[in-house]
Amino acid sequence: MSIPPNSYRSGPDARGHFGGYGGRFVAETLMPLVLDLERAYGEAKDDPAFRAELGAMLKDYVGRESPLYFAERLTERLGGAKIYLKREDLNHTGAHKINNCLGQILLARRMGKTRIIAETGAGQHGVATATVAARFGLPCIVYMGEVDIERQKPNVFRMKLLGAEVRPVKSGSRTLKDAMNEALRDWVANVHDTFYIIGSAAGPHPYPEMVRDFQTVIGSETRAQMMVKEKRLPDLVIACVGGGSNAIGMFHPFLDDAEVAIHGVEASGDGLDTERHAATLSKGSPGVLHGARSYLLQDRDGQIREAHSISAGLDYPGVGPEHAWLKDQGRVQYFSASDKDALEAFMLLSKLEGIIPALESAHAIAHVMRTAPQMAKDKLIAVCLSGRGDKDVFSVAHALGERI
Amino acid sequence: MSRISSRFAELKKANRSAFVPFITAGDPDFDTALALLKALPKAGADLIELGIPFSDPMADGPVNQASYLRALASGMTLPKVLDMVRKFRKEDKATPLVLMGSYNPIHAYGTARFVRDAAEAGIDGFLIVDLPPEEDEVLRAPASVHGLDVVRFVTPTSDAKRLDTILAGASGYLYYVSMAGITGTKPIEAEDVEASIDALRARTRLPVTVGFGIRTPEQAGRVARFADGVVVGTAIVERVFRNVNDPRLAANVTEFCAELANSVHAARDKDV
User: Fold this and answer.
1) Does A181 touch chain B (CB under 8 A)?
2) Where are the domains of chain B?
3) Chain segment A117-150, per-residue pLDDT in tens
4) ipTM attached to this prediction
5) Which of A15, A33, A171 is opposite residue B134, by nearest beta carbon?
6) What is the pTM of this model?
């Protein structure tokens, strides 16, 4: 049994490792850029002017802080713990992704980069990137798998309206993982002027750290808001995990609060016992993909398996390295919710609270539906509602067999 | 002396550049790829890079991606790559063989165990595209035990400071990536590369091979005048693809390799 660390919040180390995870597994061509980015981010992070500019944009452009909303009817229906929703769905562009995109584009500008690229699954990160690129007048190319383009049409059109070029990715499973491959290939070929805005808390160091830092605003606000509303910390914090950016942002400020239980919820698609799921931490094993060592869905020969989830944003066979470490440390427990569970949660939240959640966030709500009834009425749950579900209405209608 | 060092020493004596073809192990299937592999030395290959198929290669263009997928579809695995090497080594004890690819299949096999098995099979070195110096200790430590080389990449983005990191601990030879990009997408700019290689020579005595973007015998000959080795990958893999349904695949691809080899080997004749 290893001794727990003094703090769960001190990683990564100087080489970008969270225990045995993370690192910089990239082509040599990218190494000078990755090192440059690390240096630039380190300087920016400590620069009051950078922090002030980011803070002002988060307030006036994104609309932060986002509310911590007491979901009274959901709480009543489930009959257990009090449920609070962290309303990242109310951010400009409709999800938590913009928090990170703003941070990264300010850094890109600081570094003198003139071209922005990104990968996207559900399209939320693509839309957020296209948005900040429009706001700062930089050309933007978004790589998106053909399968995802089909199931997230509204977001594809939004990106086009925002002036971004959406490049369909035809390789592999034509989803998020392939979009990330293609974005990395673009970056290798355009090293001199291009900034790659990664949306997940994944990729080579310093991305997992940087994305986490920019998303930590979610958990920090939640913590402070809960102290105001309930005069104490929540008993349980919940977020959905694909690559894991909203989750790490929500979890990080609570990691050293031993009294707070933390649950991540992966997508189990058709079910954990089937071949069609995206539950990387529950069913995967450690490996190296997209610049970092972390858990992966892979076969015995180390070939990457295709993930499946009804939610494009969770449909990824990897996960951010800090989650892999937190799982091994036992600090965060990872569960899963199926397509069916997520759809049920999607409908329930819509009808009870008048809030249509993103299918990604619906996985977190599905876990709330299982856990809240098991908890006493004086217990508190804070769940990250990472995005809104407008983009998903076509997918949901299709899944329900309805035509719209 | 390792097979790699002695091969470069022989070539240096003869004032010749090495012709280094790249093929994917198992493309389009095990038997055809083995036949091609066996034919390469006779076609003039001085060193061979054997690609490990991977589902998600980060540094490869569409041609090599498709090649890995053909190999995987035919049932290729990392243990089978080593089988292929063993079969090759039964007939050829002299031609250095370097495994090239992504790290994850090796990680899944178990890195230390893989290096041991690869050494026994007759591999001479590794070129792992996503293991930069910051991460390659995990491979270099077992490789040095078995006397195998972990070849490092130098790229147009490697400045003087970066070169310090790359050269500290480099062994076998250096692979100069002739352009910032993925395999097989842009043609080489030989003049720019020559200047970079000259600068590199001032820093190291290791042989320097050049790859990425060399597609024709003419380009290969041009690079062979100044580089210690000329790597051709995508252009060869493309011919494998074009001959996929031809029973003469190995012969047809070998013929192209022979043209490349002749051009590489004759490149410096006019200089003397």
Assistant:
1) yes
2) 3-264
3) 999 988 889 999 999 999 999 999 999 999 999 8
4) 0.95
5) A15
6) 0.95
